[in-house]
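Lab notebook, page 48
Experiment: co-folding of the full assembly
Goal: obtain a model of how the components sit together before planning crosslinking
Operator: M.T.
Materials (sequences as entered):
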Amino acid sequence: MAIAKAVEREPVSPSDKPRWWPTMHRALSFLAVVLTLCAVWEGYKALGLAIDGPALPCGLTKMPVCPNDKSMPHLWTIFNALVQPVRRGETEILLVHLLKAALFTWREAATGFVIGSLIGFTLGAVFGRFLLLERSLMPYIVASQTVPLLAIAPMVVIWGSRLNWPAWLSVSIISAYLTFFPVTINTLRGLRSPNPMAVELMRSYAASEMQILWKLRLPAALPYIFTALKVSATASVIGAIVGELPTGIAEGLGRVLLSFSYFFTLGPEKLYAAIFGAALLGIVFAALIALAERIVLPKSRRLSE
Amino acid sequence: MSNASVISISNVSKIYNPGQDSRVAALEDINLEIHGGEFISLIGPSGCGKSTLLRLIGDLIAPSVGTLLVNGKPAPQARRDRDYGMVFQQATLYDWRSVSKNVQLPLEVMGYSRAKRETRTAEMLKLVQLEEFGKHYPWQLSGGMQQRVAIARALAFEPSILLMDEPFGALDEMTRERMQMEVLRIWGATKTTVVFVTHSIPEAVFLSTRVVVMSARPGRLTRIIDVDLPQPRGFETREQPRFFEKITEVREALRREEVRGGATS
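Observation: model returned without errors.
Model output:
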């Protein structure tokens, strides 16, 4: 008897929408969220104006958060600040200043991200292979994440200067400290994700442990690892910004945020602009990792979609 | 059909969690000789240890007592010599690999050259009549097609023994009957010795040269029934009176055990 050769189930998803539709849809919903947030900000300020009256000092406000222009500048004030010189008498505008600082911080964060991911992956792979090591070391790995970053940072800086590292490398180490943990946990989970039959299949081929790792466990772990890398990308930026403060690095976003917060009363819009810049850096970095995921993994294997 | 003993099981018992409260005697004192080119079905109620027996033969677990020789060697040696092809209830295809890459998996593990891998894969996909689906991914195939890929993968390295653990258990009745025909055709073409676990009586009778009936708690062999239906078998086999007689024979063997088990417990 001949087996029917027709495809028993239609492989391509039956959709009458054009191919660009999902991308378009995503862009539109992103835009909608941004516009809503802007509307909430300005709406809150308008409400404050109606209740408190114009230019009421913050101590007298009836609103939960002070809505006046000194503490919540208008969005257009913030945007305008971006194209003004950073300080009076300088030619460089704030936007360029922030971009330079962001790029500098990103270099530290990216280095830390790479170091942290490699360490995280190695730990995950070792724990996946040796249960005893996982049992004995995992509590310390978890505990390491409860130690405040601000306590770790000065120690790294001191060690770094003893070893004559460049200061930015110390920042990268601090950033790596925040990065490795999610990668360790998810690598471990991913390596253990294949079902027992998939492993038995390999055993029936008399495959070596290395072959099982490369041909089964690692490919199965990739979706989990990418999820961790996206989390780590944003964490690495936070780690780098915090790490810049005790190292006294002047070129990065950390110092920019610090000095703008000193002079908050003189120019609150500059601090807000810098905060957006820092947030944007984290988002862009995570988006880069998401892009790499799209290239490496087919759609059916991505965990987040 | 050669008559040399290919699988020789003597006095094999398997106890899970020995010495603990959760101790389970999964198999007790199993003796069985399987000859080259036979098609053996293991049938019995759930918990009778039929899958355990299959895993023992394939050296995925070790026996607590007894000896298990495969092609004259201890089972672990046979596994290292790649004497087994395995097919599970789920196709267990790796979903990041295309259909051809899945069939190539054992060949990669065993270090076949690329050229050899590609010719073998093409032959195997032809054997299971999926030659046009090499570039598809597992999720693009129906359950029956996935199971055919799993069979192609199991046979790719020409193992002398094919171990199948309820391979069609998850398929609908019509697909299941087609797959039974398919597996008989492949068995006829490859001369492989097949050990097949099932809990379907007609399936066991239709496919097998011998049906091994097992009982539960502890798992024992209770009867071995020769199925002397003519080869090759086809649709008309299912309509022969002899087919129904054999089904009745297996059913009664299973029922007797059930009654006896009920009386003692």
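Interpretation: The domain at 97-301 of chain A is CATH 1.10.3720.10 (MetI-like fold).
Next step: discuss with group before ordering constructs.
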